[in-house]
Predict the 3D structure of the following.
Amino acid sequence: MTDDAVVFVAGARPNFMKVAPMLRAMREGAAPFRRVLVHTGQHYDDAMSEVFFREFEMPAPDVHLNVGSGSHGAQTAKVLAAFEDYLLGARPRGVVVVGDVNSTMACTLAAVKLGVPVAHLEAGLRSFDRTMPEEINRLVTDAVADLLLTSERAGDANLAREGIPAERVRFVGNVMIDTLFQQLPRARDLRVPETLGLAPGGYALATLHRPSNVDDAARLTALVDLLERLAGRVPVVFPAHPRTRERLDRFGLLPRVAATPTIHLREPLGYRENLGLMAGAALVLTDSGGIQEETTALHVPCLTLRANTERPATVSEGTNTLVGDDLGAAWSCIEEVLAGTYKRGGDVEGWDGHAAERATRVLVEAWG
């Protein structure tokens, strides 16, 4: 028997930023559903999870699947099996999956095989690079989910090109930007740049974690060269992902970075700390998809060290530039930023802090 619950699935850190505004919008909008939060445990850390639940004002998860880490195949299989077991006993009104992690695809497959409707939040994004595991997750999820909620207009066009019927697609905007605007005042209040002795607007922020950038010694060496050159102009804050720090150490680059006084090598930061640093930065260098969106919303120049992006609005309308492997192009953009001639970017449609409200209305219309 189907009950009145709508299940929200979160598997990894970026998912929480997208689920939190949905839970809040459903509560404040008095949606006629019982909200259930399932944490698959794809990425799980007790301390970090507690911070997220507290900062994002989220209830504790109702269900923990505790799948843990593993290869893509093993992890996907564990999530699928565990979520199927849960659904066999729960039979909810619908399931909402977000983003493009393994849990997104696995929980979608488990639900649709049991006839449980699925809504995919942040649907239609495409990098057109099938070497990225996230791209496969996006394609499979969108092919079988019942309701596709897009965050930018390019997503609508991608889905139409793939033959998805228009009645399955709804443009709602970017829920992650809802979280950004909700958290920004508290992030600024932390005054993180000042605690590092940095003037707002007088430093750069760098984040690196993708295998294409950190697993090859020559590529990572070239990126360290770029950061050192940039640090000769402005201080660089470099919160190093554990994978990145391990590769820096393996390739003998860690002592170089640590010895550069104007590179502030740090452990990974919490959401608010990172947001506060982004908001005050002169520019950001990254290979993260989410940071491309956040810098666009903040109107902070962003140089993306990738050859493609699944978020084209950040380039066509926002402050992002894809520099790929061309670090000469990256330096040219840095010169423009420091000279004040870099593009300013505009506001992207639907990135206004109210995407979750629109998405909730769509769910009520479809499942209410």
